[in-house]
Design goal:
binds inosinic acid, binds magnesium ion, alpha/beta, 5 helices, globular, 3-stranded antiparallel β-sheet
Length: about 190
């Protein structure tokens, strides 16, 4: 399998991820029962989590999406979040749960959260990520629901990509150094 061969090691197998999603979904359901909930999914990274997590949340909810990115093809955040304002979902008066694949610098979640409160008029905003990198963050932002904490390394699979690929790996792993170097050299990305 070509994608598996590109990995140095696997961090979380599919069964481990799904078992953790059962727990997160139960917590999310408990915290939001009786509220008007809109889940705002950050694309593309949050789409696999969205499908598996939300099918485990047993209450009525709306699903919205928005596209944000801060990586632009490499393996490190460029510190600027591209967010299309005209695509901001209508969440006025609603409780919002933002879903993303990973909390890295925290810039993406902080930016989206701010927008949904200030421009979107959300009643309350909570955040959920599958992974959180253990690191110092320039922006003071956490996540209310976290699947797993990982070290400060670049991971792929289960929605997370490298140069657009590997999102469809059903598990999460670390790419081999030479795969990263080869791709970046080919693209001319530093
Ligand atoms: P932040 O704004 O620095 O927190 O970056 C979060 C975004 O960067 C996530 O939504 C991911 O799309 C992307 N990202 C951060 N770390 C990784 C990683 O290890 N692999 C793949 N994408 C990542
Ligand atoms: Mg993302």
């Amino acid at each position: 399998m070509w994608m598996r061969d590109d990995l140095e090691r696997i961090l979380f197998h599919e069964t481990t991820i799904l078992a953790r999603l059962d727990e997160l979904a139960e917590q999310i359901t408990r915290d939001h029962l009786g509220k008007d909930l809109s889940v705002v999914v950050i694309l593309h990274g949050g789409m696999v989590l969205m499908a598996d997590l939300l099918r485990r949340v047993h209450m009525p909810l709306l699903i919205e999406t928005l596209t944000a990115s801060s990586y632009h093809g490499g393996t490190a955040s460029k510190g600027v979040v591209d967010l299309r304002e005209e695509g901001l979902p209508d969440v006025r008066g609603r409780h919002v749960l933002i879903l993303d694949d990973i909390l890295d610098t925290g810039l993406t979640l902080a930016t989206v959260k701010k927008q949904l409160i200030e421009s979107g008029g959300a009643e309350g905003v909570r955040t959920c990520v599958l992974l959180r990198k253990k690191k110092e963050r320039p922006v003071r932002v956490g996540a209310d629901y976290v699947g797993f904490e990982i070290g400060d390394e670049f991971v792929v699979g289960y929605g997370l990509d490298f140069a657009g690929r590997y999102r469809n790996l059903p598990f999460i792993g670390v790419l081999k150094e030479d795969v990263i170097r080869g791709e970046l050299a080919e693209k001319g990305v530093e």
